[in-house]
Amino acid sequence: AVPGIRGLTPYQPGKPIGELEREFGLERIVKLASNENPLGASPKALEMVRQILGGTHLYPDGSGFELKAALAEKLAVEPAQIVLGNGSNDVLDLVARVFLAPGLNAVYSEHAFAVYPIATQTVGAAGKAAPAHDGSRGPRFGHDLEAMLERVDAHTRVVFVANPNNPTGTLLGRSELHAFLAALPERVIAVVDEAYFEYAHAPDHPNALEWLGEFPKLIVTRTFSKAYGLAGLRVGYAVSGAEIADLLNRARQPFNVNALALAAAAAALGDVEFLEATVRVNDAGLARLEAGFRTRNFDYIPSAGNFVSFDLARPGAPVYEALLREGVIVRPVGNYGLPNHLRVSVGTAEEIDVFFAALDRVLGR
Ligand code: PMP
């Protein structure tokens, strides 16, 4: 293997429901492990998938013309500024392949999304994790942008910022993120990963797309996996200046987004009602989770996403295992440097109640 591969920790996906069914023969399984949409997907997107099924012998549109046109209109950018990916992970990987190489490095924060080191080290570049906030100057576990800037050196070509971040749910405000982007050396590509953007409504929640004109090296990534409920179809995208998008598109696999995903995503974009319902359910679910953690005296990290990480004050892995046997799948986050936390995705009110009941049983409360 090329250098760097053996040092990688493989991405640990949420345990699939089917696996748990086989393992424990459980009837009801609640999966709150992968920040998926508890409402499913937009009915309009599903209808489109049914229509497209008859054409699966044909290659998808390799340029993603219609989806890019729909996105361009919605986001007020040009189609030439958009790069489609097989999930936004694919786009993050493209960024690494296009801008990183042995001898170069990428900077990200401790407890940041696991794909940044994977994408970086896969191309033989070095990943530099800056320490997260300790709570004295910013939200505990959140990105410390000053510490990240300090890690940027002559060999840094990419910085990855997740806003909000997974698994911490921490959010960077407009002025601090803007100042960080402005302070980066000109040669550095800044990736602002907005996978959870659609859930945003804090007044200070930045929309990094607004800064594309100002920062030519800015790449904003988003996804249809979360609020749009299309995680299983795999579609995400990057928006940047047209020059950077052109470079990414050169390295992109010709048909990286499948036909079902392209059509479903375009339809999902038009279903404003579904998105609004999603955000409503998420707000209510976040409040329900946070109230449950407060009642039980667990420290949790206030989240701007569709998940909450909470501190068990003891190792999370055994509690995760015990919850599996109760038919509840959450996410251990030890591989994110948070061994005493578990991350639970927002579900319906009923799913959240099932989660807390299982947690209470497991902890003997
Ligand atoms: N970025 C962040 C911060 C995420 O949490 C995720 C999903 N876990 C992704 C990117 C990638 O999602 P997808 O590839 O499904 O678009």
Automatic annotation (TrEMBL):
Keywords tagged on the record: Amino-acid biosynthesis, Aminotransferase, Histidine biosynthesis, Pyridoxal phosphate, Transferase
Organism: Methylococcus geothermalis
Modified residues (N6-(pyridoxal phosphate)lysine): K226
Family to which the UniProt record says this protein belongs: Belongs to the class-II pyridoxal-phosphate-dependent aminotransferase family. Histidinol-phosphate aminotransferase subfamily.
Enzyme category, top tier: transferase
Subunit structure: Homodimer.
Pathway: Amino-acid biosynthesis; L-histidine biosynthesis; L-histidine from 5-phospho-alpha-D-ribose 1-diphosphate: step 7/9
Cofactor(s) needed by this chain: pyridoxal 5'-phosphate
Keyword presence, Transferase: yes
Domain Aminotransferase class I/classII large: start-end pairs: 29-358
Enzyme Commission number(s) of this protein: 2.6.1.9
PROSITE patterns noted in UniProt: AA_TRANSFER_CLASS_2
GO biological process, one term: L-histidine biosynthetic process
Protein name as catalogued: Histidinol-phosphate aminotransferase
GO molecular function, one term: histidinol-phosphate transaminase activity
Catalytic activity from the UniProt record: L-histidinol phosphate + 2-oxoglutarate = 3-(imidazol-4-yl)-2-oxopropyl phosphate + L-glutamate
InterPro entries documented for this protein: Aminotrans_II_pyridoxalP_BS, Aminotransferase_I/II_large, HisP_aminotrans, HistidinolP_aminotransfase, PyrdxlP-dep_Trfase, PyrdxlP-dep_Trfase_major, PyrdxlP-dep_Trfase_small
Matching CDD domains: AAT_like
